[in-house]
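Q: I'm writing a short methods note and want an example of a predicted protein-small molecule complex. Could you take the sequence and the SMILES for pyridoxal-5'-phosphate and return the bound structure as tokens? Please keep the output block clean; save any remarks for afterwards.
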Amino acid sequence: MSTSLADTRSAEWYRRALEVLPGGVNSPVRAMRAIGRSPIFIDRGEGAELIDVDGNRFLDYVCSWGPLIHGHAHPQVLDAVAAAAAKGTSFGAPTPAEVELAVEVTRRIEGVDMLRMTSSGTEATMTAVRLARAVTGRERILKFAGAYHGHLDGLLAEAGSGLATQALPASPGVPASAAAGTVVIPWNDPEALIAATDGHELAAILAEPLPANMGLVLPQEGFLELLRERADTCGALLVLDEVISGFRVSRGGAQELTGVRGDLTIMGKVLGGGLPAAAVGGRSELMRLLAPAGDVYQAGTLSGNPLAVAAGLATLALLDEPAYLRLSSITEQLASGLREAAGGYPVQVASVPGLLTVFFSDRPIADFDDARACDLVAYAAWCRELHSRGVYIPPSQFEAWFPSLAHTPEHLERTIVAAAASFAGLP
Ligand SMILES: *Cc1c(COP(=O)(O)O)cnc(C)c1O
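A: Understood, no commentary inside the block.
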């Protein structure tokens, strides 16, 4: 990266993008404002590597924010998409492959007997909330500060991720009535959870079982079990958002890993293997309330799209037990290497198989307030250093790293060396 940022092709594309796309991007975090640099425009991906429009190569730990668990342009995924595309890209009518994908999902996730596919996680969450309200006849929903469930009005309050990156509590344009239907409490706070569910009429408790949109903040001992118990006590559905954790942290997602089951499960990201696919699933008696089996309306022109379904099927076919063991060991190696690389620098490295976050904090992170109290300036400086050394990590303290099965021991070693040099370069 010899040329200065100002005269790169990325900079030129960014100037052009700013004219026609708000902020130059189609999703805020891509603008890299939180780390005080301009965005990197991508030409292509190869396995664990990204190649930008200037020809710079980066080891990619963002991997499209989760879908690319096999890395970029995996030949089996590409072949499946090409074969599907050759037969036509969309029919607006049922296809065998979407049934096959649904069967594969029901085999993996206990308690998901049926699913409805959508094109984005946001839509799947919308459907889950509508279903929960229809089932319970109640309106209010409970979510946790720092949890992200997509950009629907009612769930943008303290939604972590992109909003946190821009230091916004919520968004203008969200009607007060939509926000009023949402109760927000801190993650890992049993007393707040009991108070918010005691005698209150809730349609749903929404949670990321392994929250990864304020950085990765693991549930404390017993907290997920308490979620299940409180949902049952107050008659609310427990909606577990596994858009990130699903098919990533284990074959059956966070629910298999932790043993705590939701009434509805939201899936996305890995499910579409890099093409737009997401879903909401649950027991048949709940799912059959959706139209046309039931009268809860939900629809989508491109839902169950043949290309996305083909990518999802090929992605899941490659995710057998050995793959999960390998992803677990890749993540563990990376996490322990990063801890060592920090030397004496005060960071907390949180990890589960397939996910990790390096928090710039001298104490463990239990909730969104802890995450927001991190040294964001130091994180930004470290992140820029890593980018300049060819390691593409999330340009925000509030996002997780997504190691993939394409990351080799040599890639990990190079990452850890670059991380150590980047820590050493911090003031
Ligand atoms: C990404 C994400 C979503 C939203 O999915 P989109 O496809 O971006 O709409 C929902 N929940 C979680 C936990 C996510 O990480």
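A: Remarks, as requested: The pocket of pyridoxal-5'-phosphate is lined by residues 120-122, 125, 148-150, 208, 213, 241, 243-244, 268, 278 (CB under 6 Å). The chain has two domains: 9-61+321-424, 75-317.
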